[in-house]
Amino acid sequence: MLNISELSEKSIKKILTILEEDGKISASLPGGGLIHIEDNLPYLIVYRKRNNDEGTERIIVSEASYLLIGDKFFEAYQRLVYALADKLSTEFKSYMVFEIYTGESNNCFTIKAPAQKLPTSVKALQRELNNINETFSGLYLKAEIKDTPNRQKEGDQEILSIDEAKKSGAVIVGLEIPPVFRNENNEVYPVFLRQFKDYLITSIHKAIYDYVRVQTTSGVGSYLALGRKHLKEKVFEIDRALAKIERSYQFLWLVSPANIQDIKNTFFESNYEKVLDYHYRLLPIDPDLLKRELFNLKIEEIDDPAMSHIFREKREELDQQITMLSERGTANFFYNSIRLYKGLSPKLSEEAGEILREVDETSEDENAEFIDAKGFSSLARREFDYFAEQDKNFKSKVHIRKDVNIMMVNNGELYVPADYKMNKTEATALIQHEVGTHVLTHYNGTQQPLELLSSGLADYDPLQEGLAVMSEYLVDGLTANRLRTLAGRVIAGSALMEGAEFPQLFRLLKMDYGFTAERAFNITSRIMQGGGFLKDIIYLKGLVQLRDHLQQGGEFEPLLAGKFGLKHSKIINELTERKVLKPGALRPSYLLTENITNKLNLIREGLPLSKMINQ
Which spans in 447-516 are helix H? Predict the structure, then answer.
């Protein structure tokens, strides 16, 4: 960050020159002041440092264009504001100086503005601020508009006089905020301040965007684009630290039993009665030390609302996973599993039941063409070559291993069991499930500035698996037995939550729902691991959520830009609008197939899940 020790005529000219040449500036100013301006933004959020005004400064320092006025040399700051307004209003046709300050203890926001000149912008701000009571109960706040030439706090000097504003082509707006985020002793409520700040900044951005759209030539696409394009280094430090903590253990590997084959053999030999204890691998980490490392991260120092939200969510998810690792084989593991995977809704259980009623189990086609592990790895490498044509930096590997019993993607590379065999239809589907979704989104995430988008934001799994299963449908590879298995996992999860144990679950699936003994065991053994593990419900859950997203007009391809959940769509869209994130580097090959649009349209038009299977 540039250090400017005095606001002389020379240093003000230097600031303007840097803005003209670089389009942005970030500098410390006299008296504890700061300036941060990014390119193409025709406004400046202003706050004056004050004594006994805890919390207010934090509202503005995450902005893409702000001036923190220090506690010395106010007249020099006035000259700086005039110089900025004079220069940038010429560039943008108009320029807004938006001052924020805290008023006396009351229940009112006061918007001080030329209401006749900015009617829609001022009304937009009033409307958003009046809606705050719907988000925060017990506040009972209101917003009023005051059309006055005095836009500053009562008793303060003007930052810019009305005459100077007219001369420079600028407009001045003041916003008085009620100090509801601190008590009578000037002590801040930290959690509420964060939430209040996020709401307030969004409201201000919506009003400023209306002004930008109507009054300026900026060309900003939406209010979402008004956030920072250049994140602070602290953001990347915490992103890397969270990703490192997640990489220090393999959660799914550590909660799966090491003796699954013995469990299966004993269960079948005992006529489906005897269940061996699950044995788990030794933990490579100390949960207490890892939690200490996790909560030593100073996420509260992140002022960017979007990034703060993402990091707090991820910390909570990692905390839950680490707790579960130390609780394997206990009832607490199951209770935390419910919390981690957000339980099971009646709607999802109904979807599963309908699938199992509508779709019959099918027997293997003895004449089908089968592919072994080597053949499958050749198909995977063909997809890798297609990815490399799109991005020469793409690299991945296929590992054929004797010590894995399920196909999986880890850190962007594909692991295939050495004895794996599948028919050609299943292979086509699995290629797009594992490579066209999991490998692709991992790589797209690595091309983003945030490491978490390659390993996964909190609760990313349902969308990942929803996309993966949808890809099976899009290549005509979603079979009846595959869809039934996904539904059976939900039925098993529901029974588990009602207290069913291993033999009961197995018999429910085999006798009541017609699963083969092999499939019934696979479903049961997976959902009983750890002491009760609800992860397997996310496949159907993710498919249902993705279907609903498409039916509500949501787009498909942007969801492949990294590993995140549907609930993050707004944040991902915002960060993309702000140029923090990029569109996905790779596209899956199935998006090139001739009938892809028709297939997605069928989903949007209400195709039942039971009709998505390959006939």
Answer: 452-455, 461-474, 480-497, 502-507
Provide the CA 396 distance to its chain's centre, in angstroms.
Answer: 25
Strand partners of residue 102:
177
Which is nearest to 405 in space by CA: 253, 594, 551? 253
Q: Residue 32 and residue 382: Cα distance in Å, rounded?
A: 58
Residues 477 and 379: their CA atoms lie apart, in Å, by 15
Tens-digit pLDDT profile for residues 270-306: 999 999 999 999 999 999 999 999 999 999 888 888 8
Mean pLDDT of each 10-residue bin along the chain, 615 residues long? 90 93 92 91 95 91 92 93 94 95 89 93 95 90 94 93 92 95 91 92 94 90 87 92 94 89 94 95 94 94 89 96 95 94 93 95 79 92 96 94 77 87 88 96 96 95 96 94 96 95 96 94 94 95 96 94 94 90 93 88 94 83
pTM: 0.86
CA 615 to each of CA 480, 610, 611: distance values in angstroms, whole numbers, following the listed order: 8, 11, 9
Strands 398-401, 421-423: pairing is: unpaired
Task: Please identify which residue in the block is written with the tokens 């809606």.
Answer: 131
8 Å CB contact between 527 and 536: yes
Q: How far apart are CA 601 and CA 560, in angstroms?
A: 18
pLDDT in tens, 58-76: 999 889 999 999 998 999 9
Which amino acid would we find at residue 19?
A: L
Residue 382, strand partner residues: none
Q: H-type helices in 73-218, by residue range?
A: 74-92, 119-130, 132-135, 162-168, 190-215
Helix axes 119-130, 190-215, angle to 10 degrees: 160
The residues that bridge with 171 in the sheet, in sequence order, are 96
Spatial CA neighbour of 49 closest among 32, 29, 63, 30? 32
